[in-house]
Amino acid sequence: MKGRLHPVVMVALVIAAALFGRVLPTWTLSLATVAASNALIALGIVVLARTGNVSFGQGLFFAAGGYGVALIANAWGITDAVAQVIIGAVCGGLLGLVIGPLIARYSGIFFGMLTLALSMMLYGALLKSTALGGSDGFNVGRPSLFGMVFADTREADFMLYAVSVAATGLAGIAATILFRSELGLASLAVRENNLRVEYLGLSANRIVTINFVIAAVFAGASGALALMAQRHIDPQFAYWTTSGEFVFVAVLAGYQSVAAVFVASVALELVRSFSNLYLPNTWQLVLGIFLLAVILFLPRGIGSLWIRDRHHKKNPAAPRAAEKGAVP
């Protein structure tokens, strides 16, 4: 545990990050809110990737959380932002509980394609559903917080930013604790050799299912945050390109560090925003070059920067010993 942050320190950092929004320019609040929401669902993909599986259809749970919040909140008159995040997480988690045990039997490309297929099935159903607005979707009201309604745009943006940072930060703390736990270590074992995990008396399918449900919970909560930020929902939430953006964030971050997910999400949003502002006709090219550069020079993700440095500090003779063929 030496060199690792205590959970209490992590909570303090999350609170500081939320309060930091008070001094941020107004335009950055919206960008940071979107980055936090994307980081939350990408964090779920990283949790799942530690088992060796990647979901290309997290838009399925992203849309389930968003539509679930929109329908339940409108029916029961729930406008509280925290309550909506919880509802989104529950909707995503319940759907994950249904799908997880079935899809955990597969791995590799079959796992990814199945999740993508399920997401596109939901997209097609939402597209044809006139009760849910069809391809146009529908709008929702402005969220409140503990009964407080924010008429000022700056205050409303800050409230949503603070809720997004708090929700994503708490999920990050939970993921950090998970990575250090027996389940987290067992997930890495499944990634390396699931057959040996079975020989140890553990169920590889159960481990994958648990991680899958956790990823679904994070995706559902992220869908609720995106709904509150846009105040509109449509079938695009479940489309494959939406899921692809979340996978990009997870690939940029790598699976070694939770903090890298937040750094990658903010970096991606900054590159997207500034390239779209200054190069409106070729911003997709700039974004693609950025992604390729990170993948080529940091194949293990942004998190490998400080993870590698930490390992070298613990054992500076390891690289030299490896070059000589010695085992440190």
Q: What is the spatial order of strands in the main beta sheet?
A: 1-2
Shape: globular
Q: Could you state the order of secondary-structure elements as H and E?
A: HHHHHEHHHEHHHHH
Structural class: mainly alpha
CA distance, first residue to last residue: 21 Å
State the low-pLDDT regions, or none. Answer: 317-328
How many helices in DSSP terms? 13
- Round the mean pLDDT to the nearest integer and report it: 83
What about the largest sheet?
2 strands, antiparallel
Number of strands: 2
Report Rg. Answer: 20 Å
Helical percent range? over 70%
Compact overview of the structure:
With 328 residues, the chain is mainly α.
Structure commentary:
This protein is mostly helical and 328 residues long. The chain has helices spanning 7-19, 26-49, 59-76, 81-103, 108-128, 153-180, 182-199, 204-230, 240-253, 259-278, 283-297, 304-314, 318-324; strands at 138-139, 232-233. Strands 1-2 form a two-stranded antiparallel sheet. The two termini are 21 Å apart. 42% of the residues are buried. Residues 317-328 have low confidence and may be disordered.
